[in-house]
Fold this sequence. Notes:
Radius of gyration: 18 Å
Strand content: under 5%
Distance between the termini: 25 Å
Shape: globular
Amino acid sequence: xxxxxxxxxxxxxxxxxxxxxxxxxxxxxxxxxxxxxxxxxxxxxxxxxxxxxxxxxxxxxxxxxxxxxxxxxxxxxxxxxxxxxxxxxxxxxxxxxxxxxxxxxxxxxxxxxxxxxxxxxxxxxxxxxxxxxxxxxxxxxxxxxxxxxxxxxxxxxxxxxxxxxxxxxxxxxxxxxxxxxxxxxxxxxxxxxxxxxxxxxxxxxxxxxxxxxxxxxxxxxxxxxxxxxxxxxxxxxxxxxxxxx
Length: 245
C-alpha cells in the first residue's frame, strides 16, 4: 500500500517539475546552460590540476544539483500548502512524509539528469578527462550532499507562501553559488571571499566533488555537510511542527 502511494506521488512530482516553468528553468535549463557556456569559453583551461571542463562537472554539477534540491521541494510544499493539499493529506490515511519523500526523490532523479547532461556536454566538447568510476564518485557525492539543501528547502516551504518561497530560495542560491566558487574557481576570488566560502555548505559540497577527481581530502567536507544536514533536519522538523497547513 505504502509503495503504491509513494510511486503515485513520485510520478506526480516528476511531472510537476516539467510543468512548472520556474522549476524547469531555474532547476534544469539554467544550470545546464551555464555549464555549456562556461565549458565552451574555458573548458580547455586548467583548474587546480584538472582540465577546467572536468572540474566544472564538480563545481557546476554542485550548482545544478543544489538548484534542483533547493528549488523544487520547497516550492512544491509551499504550493501544496496554498492549495490546501497538505491539509487534506494530514487528515487522510496517507502520511504526509510519503509526499515529502516523493518530492525529495523527484529532485534527486532530476539532479541525476542534470549531471548526465553536463557530462555528455563536456564529453562532446572534448573537455572531459576523467574515468567513469571517478565521475560516478562525483555524482554519488553531489547527490548525497544535496540532502541538507532539500531539507532547508522543505523548511522554507512550510513557512512561506509560494511566491515568497521562490523569491527567497533564489535570493539565497545565487550568492551561495558565487561565494562558493561554483561559477568562478575559488582561487580567483578575493581572499575575503575565500575565507567566507569555508563556512558555506555549497563550498564544501563542491570541494567534495573535486576530491573525487583526485584533488584533496574529503574528510573535512564530509564533516561540514553532516553538521549542515543535522541543522537542516532540525529546521525542517520545527517548520513542519509550526506550519499553518
